[in-house]
Amino acid sequence: MPETIPKDSVGLVQPHFMHFDEPLSLDSGRVLPSYDLIYETYGTLNPAGTNAILLCHALSSDHHAAGYHSTEERKPGWWETCVGPGKCIDTNRFFVVCSNNLGSCKGSTGPVSVNPETGKVFGPDFPLVTVKDWVKSQAIFSDRLGIKKWAAVVGGSLGGMQAMQWTIDYPDRIQHAIVIASAAKLSAQNIAFNEVARQAILTDPDFHEGHYQANNTLPRRGLMIARMLGHITYLSDDAMRAKFGRELREGKVNYNFDVDFQVESYLRYQGMSFVDRFDANTYLLMTKTLDYFDPARECDDDLSAAFKHALASFFVLSFTSDWRFAPQRSKEIVKALLDDDKDVSYVEVEANHGHDAFLMPIPRYLEAFSLYMERVAKDACV
Amino acid sequence: MPETIPKDSVGLVQPHFMHFDEPLSLDSGRVLPSYDLIYETYGTLNPAGTNAILLCHALSSDHHAAGYHSTEERKPGWWETCVGPGKCIDTNRFFVVCSNNLGSCKGSTGPVSVNPETGKVFGPDFPLVTVKDWVKSQAIFSDRLGIKKWAAVVGGSLGGMQAMQWTIDYPDRIQHAIVIASAAKLSAQNIAFNEVARQAILTDPDFHEGHYQANNTLPRRGLMIARMLGHITYLSDDAMRAKFGRELREGKVNYNFDVDFQVESYLRYQGMSFVDRFDANTYLLMTKTLDYFDPARECDDDLSAAFKHALASFFVLSFTSDWRFAPQRSKEIVKALLDDDKDVSYVEVEANHGHDAFLMPIPRYLEAFSLYMERVAKDACV
User: Fold this and answer.
1) How far apart are CA B377 and CA B382, in angstroms?
2) Residues B321, B236: contact at Cβ < 8 Å?
3) B9: helix, coil or strand?
4) Looking at the complex, does the CB of residue B192 fall below 8 Å from at least one CB of chain A?
5) Touching check for B325 and chain A: CB below 8 Å?
6) Radius of gyration of chain B (CA)
7) pLDDT, tens only, B126-161
8) Minimal-distance CA residue of chain A relative to B200
9) A61 catalytic, yes or no?
10) Which of the 8 DSSP states describes residue B350?
């Protein structure tokens, strides 16, 4: 944490646990007999309960969206840029909730948790979960929090998919869906990248069919490769050029397979450090959750039909240089909503940062986001 | 081979070997005391020796550019689309030569060859070679063939880089440089993809620091991952969508890590079959050759300065959906040449096939290519 907490930070925060004893039936047909969710909240729920905002996190992220867990923590939560007093999602006005998704390795029940039925870590036996499963668990969680209707459900990337699913499954419990740098389904290319990442993990001899913990090892190589690959898709070609170009680490090429270019060094570091903070079974699961998301499938691939009963207002935002979920993918969502005569606003933000732009302080992005949040505030009477 | 050889095929062909006893000094400072090149030729050298065309191959390709090696061979050479009687590169008019690059695993001296100094396979001890080294070896090879000047040096992708290098290093030995779907240097993103592929191979426990043969094994997993990744970059997002979409192999998702989507099945097949026909040390080497190519570097990053002494006429061609070497990369080459007042023609072909388009029978591509080849023929007096 910086020596003095910035005034626009929520400051010191702590996570909370909630235990659920009611079984949760999953899309796969399997049932979780009980589970925990870990979450954080910022701001205060107003007496009318109208000012609650649910943040949904992306692939490798968690419930720690803003502030600091301790004075030793160097980095704040993942969306510090957008969440805090006076920020886009203004914690002086809104009660902000961010829960960690089921199947994560960050505190909610997932592959690294102990299976109460066996007394052993779930590992690869943890069921695959879908965006629909997540939203279902979040709805039950909302009941326990006493939140009947979210002023907004907000997310970037995989988080945006959850916001969309909310409008479909619980149309009367969400006032606004804010869908940033997302897509209504993965493209074949998106799935292809996920499949390469999965194969890197699955074929690592230290993977042991997911039972690496029981074998006292970790599929470090596979998870490293998966993360390196992921990183390429989070950055734009332009962003990589601006950040690294063809800069050589030692001013010359080595004529061997050590690091020649800075970009190699960066990727290796990203890959290796990820291994210490993420779980391979969880990574596999999360990529499948992404691949499976496709609300239009149940409606003969008609996305408008999928959104037909949605009641929320939508705010869709994309970034020009995002090639993981390009603006075209956001426009597909917008088109489907317009075909349904839904209330939808769309902004395409000029930005060179690629998919990662949704985490960055890009002025036009923050302006457009803040502007829309004024509307959310008005509807929430705050 | 089809039951009857198509009339526009060069038909049955066979490779030739040429041995070189003169040492070859490489960019890395190392010296190859002797080496072999394997090559094929199609058509006949005219008495004046003006009609010779050198084809330069790309990353995982070889000297077998056209025709069939036997009646059992199911697939013809890699550029059958463009090379043959009456085709763009018309073997009725031109004497076409394609040699396998040094460092390959397809017949020319490379990592899988026996090092005459040790009596053992080179393996990882084979020196890294550069595009400049290749062109140098091709020039010596040209001397032995008795070809003083190529009517054209032609290549796609990494092959186009060799054509460019020829104009820089041997300006008076090349009349036309035909550079298809190429770039004057890799971008940080290009290097990043190569680095992920390399790490997949280098970290495979069966790699044994490149001495896998001595350990009676193969880094199958790493090479498979590398190839799967490569394949994604060869196809456009559109091409993948057209080819696979989100089609499910069994009509439903499995909720496990078996193949759900057709694209996964395709990629796994591509990856696994590659392992049986390519060598991991060679793959590593070839990616470094790509990364290192940057003729402007010696000229303070001024590409025009690099081309300053070129005498060739240039034909540069790109494909709209190629995101590995996008049209913008070709335009950088064209711009540098125009700044030098060089003779350059440029065509950007509308095509959905991605980088692989240069191997495909796209009518507008073949038309533009044929048209330029008429000019090459005229200059060659054929």
Assistant:
1) 5
2) yes
3) coil
4) yes
5) no
6) 21
7) 999 999 999 999 999 999 999 999 999 999 999 999
8) A225
9) no
10) -
| A208 and chain B in contact, CB less than 8 A | no
pLDDT band, very low/low/confident/very high, at B218 (cuts 50, 70, 90): very high
CA–CA gap between residue A177 and residue A180 (Å, rounded) = 10
Is residue B322 classed as helix, strand or coil in its secondary structure?
coil
Q: Has residue B62 got a pLDDT over 70?
A: yes
Taking alpha carbons only, the member of B55, B48, B135 closest to residue B88 is B55
pLDDT at A2: 64
Token duo for residue A160: 């945006």
Query: How many residues can be counted in chain A?
Result: 382
A226 touching B (Cβ < 8 Å): no
At A62-73, the pLDDT tens digits run 999 999 999 888
Run of H or E residues at B42: strand B35-42
Q: Report ipTM for this prediction.
A: 0.94
Distant-in-sequence, close-in-space partners of B116: CB < 8 Å, separation ≥ 6: B33, B34
Chain B positions in Cβ-Cβ contact with residue A289 (cut-off 8 Å): none
Query: Which residue from B minimizes the CA distance to A210?
Result: B257
* pLDDT(B289) > 90: yes
How many CB pairs below 8 A link A and B? 147
Taking an 8 Å cut-off on Cβ atoms, the answer to whether A225 and B203 are in contact is: yes
* Residue closest to A178 by CA, chosen among A365, A313, A335, A350: A313
Look up residue B90 and give its DSSP letter: E
Tokens of A289: 């959750």
Q: At residue B188, does pLDDT exceed 70?
A: yes
- Strands B114-115 and B95-99, how do they pair? unpaired
The whole-number pLDDT of residue A1 equals 59
Could you give the angle at the alpha carbon of B293 between the alpha carbons of B292 and B294, nearest 5°? Answer: 105
Question: Backbone phi, then psi, for A315, in 5-degree steps?
Answer: -125, 115
Q: Over the range A154-188, which residues count as b (16 or more CB within 10 Å of their CB) and which as e?
A: bbbbbbbbbbbbbbbbbeebbbbbbbbbbbbbbbb
Tokens representing B279 are 């060598």
Q: Chain A: give the shortest CA distance to residue B236, in Å.
A: 8
Report whether B199 contacts A224 (CB < 8 A): yes
Inter-chain CB proximity A263 and B29 less than 8 Å: no
β pairing state of A89-90 and A83-84 = parallel
Q: CA-to-CA distance for B152 and B300, rounded, in angstroms? A: 28
What is the β-pairing status of strands B52-56 and B95-99? parallel
In b/e form, how buried is each residue of A343-359, taking b as 16+ CB within 10 angstroms? ebbbbbbebbbbbbbbb
State how far the Cα of A38 lies from the Cα of A127, in Å rounded to an integer: 19
* Separation in Å, CA A60 to CA A45, A227, A319: 28, 10, 20
On chain A, the residues whose CB falls within 8 A of the CB of B356 are none
Q: What is the pLDDT of residue B4?
A: 76
Distance spanning both ends of chain A, measured CA to CA? 30
Mean pLDDT, chain A cut into blocks of 10 residues (382 residues total): 81 97 97 97 97 97 97 93 98 98 98 94 97 98 98 98 98 98 97 98 97 96 97 94 93 94 96 96 98 97 98 98 97 98 98 96 98 97 91
- Where helices occur in chain B by DSSP H, the ranges are 131-145, 158-169, 188-202, 220-234, 237-243, 262-275, 280-292, 303-307, 327-339, 363-379
Instruction: Quickly state the pLDDT bin for B80 (edges 50, 70, 90).
Output: very high
3-state secondary structure at position B285 = helix
Q: Report long-range pairs for A17-24 (Cβ below 8 Å, ≥24 apart).
A: A17/A107, A18/A141, A18/A144, A20/A137, A20/A140, A20/A141, A20/A144, A22/A140, A24/A102, A24/A133, A24/A136, A24/A137, A24/A140
Assign B71 a pLDDT band (cuts: 50, 70, 90): confident
